[in-house]
Design a protein that fits this description.
Nucleotide Exchange Factor Grpe, Chain A, domain 2; three-stranded antiparallel sheet; three-stranded mixed sheet; 198 residues; 4 helices; alpha+beta
Length: 198
């Protein structure tokens, strides 16, 4: 007996594509009964009422899955928004911590500048570069002589009763404070003029 040559199974898989047959009776796009389903129904014992119930059930199912898909899409969009917001908040916290760590060096440079020790030295350039870096990130100084005392932005180190004072105002800035946008990096340490009768 001679054996017939067998075909290579790998070739069969390459040459055949999967066949997809949609056997739903109701068209998911239109919600109507498909013609082949209507023809099959005419030979079966299915009433028009049963067909209408089936069509309604499939429409309800399609609507439910569309609703689920829309909710899942909305949840995904909310998740992405939340992740981006958290990422931005984390970035702000890290930048604030780095800048806060550099504040003591900035204080030393400010003190040296107020005594005239920086003029004409290489450290003057370092101070300028450091200040421009702070400005680029939106760091602004807090605490100026004459501004109203604000406990959320100032730390009162000394209270100085004064006959001229009508309200609590900053009389002297002992150590400057800084903000990064709306975030307070460090409050300004100040001496506060207060009315003499307090």
């Amino acid at each position: 007996m001679s054996k017939s040559p067998k075909q290579n199974p790998a070739e069969d898989e390459e040459n055949t594509e999967p066949l997809v047959t949609d056997k739903r009776r109701i068209d998911p796009e239109t919600g109507e009964l498909r013609p082949e389903a209507a023809a099959a129904a005419s030979g079966e014992d299915i009433s028009e009422e049963d067909i209408a119930l089936l069509a309604e059930a499939e429409r309800d199912l399609v609507a439910e899955y569309r609703d689920r898909a829309a909710r899942a899409e909305a949840e995904l969009a909310n998740f992405r928004t939340r992740v981006e917001r958290d990422r931005a908040a984390n970035r702000e916290v890290v930048v604030a911590e780095v800048l806060r760590a550099m504040l003591p060096a900035m204080d030393d440079l400010d003190r040296a500048e107020s005594h005239g020790d920086l003029v004409g030295t290489p450290m003057e350039m370092v101070a300028q570069k450091l200040r421009s870096g702070f400005e680029r990130y939106g760091v602004t100084p807090v605490g100026e002589v004459g501004e109203p005392f604000d406990p959320s932005r100032h730390e009162a180190m000394v209270r100085l009763p004064s006959a001229e004072a009508t309200s609590e105002t900053v009389a002297e800035v002992i150590e400057g404070g800084y903000t990064l946008g709306e975030r307070l990096l460090r409050p300004a340490r100040v001496a506060v003029s207060v009315p003499a009768d307090e």
